[in-house]
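haha ok so turns out i had the wrong file open the whole time. this is the CORRECT one, sorry everyone. sequence first:
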Amino acid sequence: MKFNYKTLERLVPEIPAIEIVAEKITAHLFEIESCENGVLDVKILPNRYSDAACYRGLAREITAICKLPYKEGKITAPKALHKNKVQPVIEVPSLCRRLIACRVEDISLGKSPAWMQEALETYGIRSINGLVDITNYVTIETGQPLHAFDADKMEGGQLVARQAHEGEEVETLDGKKIILNPSALVLSDARNALDIAGIKGGTRAEITAKTKNIVLTAGNFDGTLIYKTSKRVGITTDASIRFSHNISPALAERGILRALELILEICGGKAGTICDTYPKPVKPITIPFEIKRFNTLTGLAFTEADCLTSLKRLGFLVAGKKVTPPVERTDITRFEDVVEEITRLQGYADLPATPPRITVTPVIPQPMRQLKDALQDMLVPLGFTEILTRSFSAEGEVALENPLTSEQAFLRPSLMEGARNAVILNLKSFEAAALFEIGSAFHKKTNHEPAEEVLCGIALASKGMKDEEAFRAVRGIMETILIRLGVGDALFTEENKALVITIKGEAVGKITRLEADHVSAYAELSLTKLLPHVSPLPHYTPIPKYPVIVRDVSFMVAKTVKIGTVMDAAWHDVPKDVTDIRFISLYEGKGIPEGKKSVTLRFIFQSAKRTLTDIEADSFLSYIMDAMKEKITFEIK
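then structure:
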């Protein structure tokens, strides 16, 4: 937006050179596009259109930034010299918030002064005649768009702000015929629309060289309405842009008083009574100011006096601990806006660099949270997807007082129901499903109060997998989890077609079949019970210096004996130099008697102190075999 520097000098005689002003505006307010040939090209921000997109608003900012006195002469209403009133009527107050009108008679259009024409030319407006130039100039001086009608062409002497009739036509000043509908607002006389309100004047009551009597108007319209209407009719004007930014209704009074002052000075004439229709006056916003809050928010150490002085320079009213922004500053609505005004006026580049002060709270370890994170980090790389199911179930120990449905009448005692439903859903679209969930289950204590237990449920299902394979896979995953968590002495014991996981005699989990449409295995681990056995840090074990001895042994057992049972029997009682026992293969083919199967295990022997001999390894193996016979029946194949 271009501003003539001579016009600014008329408002602020003490204003510095244009280059200095451009530099200060850039540092404290807006970007300056250019400052050449006595013209300031300022990039006005959208939120400041209500106050700074005019000479008066920019002048106030310049005086505040440069710490100059700002003197604004008080404009009073002229004395009414005739009795022809024009009382505006507003039919829809939500669309037209304020409308002011005044009839001026016996005017002489003439020419506007050179300084006014120069200001208009800089802004991009051509000079027409004294009256039109005044309305245009006052718009760019105060920020309030104005319009004048030829009073003798208005029927009934009325001015009405109303919605357009369906199909109503307005011929604009540039000769375009616009068809309107009720979504548009017009200013009308007793019968016809005179213009498209807030956007463009019409030819019906156009000012011409023969005009002697006028009705000068200043209105305030809903910004959204003006924006939508402007886009719909394809007309964008300086007035429509200003109204689209929701300028303050207070500008209407200031604009019409300033215009009347210039009209009577330049065009002569007799002004009548100023009639103001303002259904719901906007009340000024009063904001409490707290210097402690200001300094806490900014990290600065300003005094209250300095802050309030800055606000006064910007036109704020200060009363004790409360400040009231100028009526045209519609962008200031809360304390943070006031803070921004003070700091930008100080100059962002001049603010001291103060490091923020914060209270450092020591991190409190949360073992359960760490355990959950560790499980997620283990299971996701193994191809498992985490699920989240509802905490309610059809059966349980803890009943809800107000259940949503009969199928959600209890707090879940296990994660199995949710896992089963998720597996069934996934197998409708995929060949396999690998899912896990970490969540809470609920049981009743002896005193009937609910007890919460954190569980981890792991479900593995596939359309082409056998029961034994699913169980082996899930057991392997559980063993891997326990090893990585530093849990030792975990035993897998077969009970009622399930594998119960115990640590030091306490059951912490179970592996069982998931009753779904396809073969699947499900493991549930109580993290609440497991947590005391988790080693917080992995233990370092030096790499052994001595070689290993490996023995592969095939055990012929009954088909009903699970591989896990054979592994548990092998681990039942082992010498300390047995470092590992691994499952190698399962064979049920040719050469194996009916009802039998061959399970091959690999035994690894290694000492941390010396090299073991084959004789020692065979002795260890013999000892293990004898211990296994206490648990299972087998033959060495």
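The chain has a mean pLDDT of 91.
again sry for the mixup
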